[in-house]
Amino acid sequence: MSNPVFSNSPIFRDPAQQRPGRDSSVRGAGPFGGANPFGGGGTATLGAQGAQAADARTLDAMYEAPTATTRDTGRMTYDDVLVKTGGLLAVLVAAAAVSWLSGSVLLWLGGAVVGLVLGLVNAFKREPSPALISIYAVAQGLFLGGISSLFNAQWQGIVVQAVLATFCVFAASLFLFSSGRVRVTPKFQKVLLVGLVGYLLFAVVNVVLSLTGVGNLRTGALGLVVGLIAVVLGAMSLIVDFDSIQRGVRKGVPAKYSWSAAFGLLVTLIWLYLELLRLIAILRGDD
């Protein structure tokens, strides 16, 4: 796993990575919870006149009724995840527009701090909080609006390019996953993990060098290579996210966890957008 929203949740975690004794809170119980639907004293209740009590028309109606869907049983569906992800993106875009138009540095810096804190809180919460997730979307929108405005002031049109590139990577990742061309295997996850750890170490070193005045490694040819690697890692992370969501739907997890799934996708998309924004800036140079 790469996204902590999914890897820290027993709801979405790969069964091979489940921790004995700690991940047994959600089980695939049937609609009757494993109990006898007619009650423990079914034989005594029906007695000798059981045939009369079990009305034939009632039984016929039960057999002829349509099969209950995941929505009918309160389980998470792909539609749930799609709707909530779209809603969070709409909230994020609205907040970004406010930050962009205001031009307030304090607004987007505050959004960055609040977004970081709420991102960690939501990622490690066992139960999803729609309110906290929505506030996270607002905070990140304020941050993205401010930083996007700065980039656009230097490279006109770069924000539109980065947004389109983000959705193109998202669509390509979804196609590769849904078509079965790319599968989330243990080897795939190990490669992603190594890549993410290496990228994190590079980012830490770059921050230290930048703060000490030595220089910024995210420029020039090296910055271009790192940017391309980051985009590939982002695409791989999306594929792992899709796999986690698919596992949750197949397990029949409660519908409330669609908020967790939407939050996980939002986190990856934000990171991917920022990496593409930097990558396009390097490619455009001083034009």
Explain what this protein looks like in three dimensions.
The protein has 287 residues and is an all-alpha fold. It contains eleven helices and no strands. It has helices at residues 4-7, 42-46, 50-53, 56-64, 78-102, 105-124, 130-154, 158-178, 186-211, 220-251, 258-284. Helix 5 packs across helix 11 and helix 8 (158-178) packs across helix 11. The longest helix is centred in the C-terminal third of the chain and has 32 residues, at 220-251. It starts with a helix and ends with a helix. 30% of the residues are buried. Keywords: Membrane, Transmembrane, Transmembrane helix.
Descriptors:
287 residues; mainly alpha; 11 helices
Compact summary:
The chain is globular, with a radius of gyration of 24 Å. The protein starts with a helix and ends with a helix.
Q: What's the topology here?
A:
Blueprint: H1 4-7, H2 42-46, H3 50-53, H4 56-64, H5 78-102, H6 105-124, H7 130-154, H8 158-178, H9 186-211, H10 220-251, H11 258-284
Helix pairs in contact: 5-7, 5-11, 6-7, 7-11, 8-10, 8-11, 9-10, 10-11
Strand content: under 5%
Binned, the helix content reads: 55-70%
Which stretches are poorly predicted, pLDDT < 50 over at least 5 residues? 22-48, 50-54
Into how many domains do the coordinates divide? 1
Quick one: how many beta strands? 0
* Assembly annotation: single chain
End-to-end CA span: 39 Å
Given helix and strand content, the structural type is mainly alpha
Which term fits the overall shape? globular
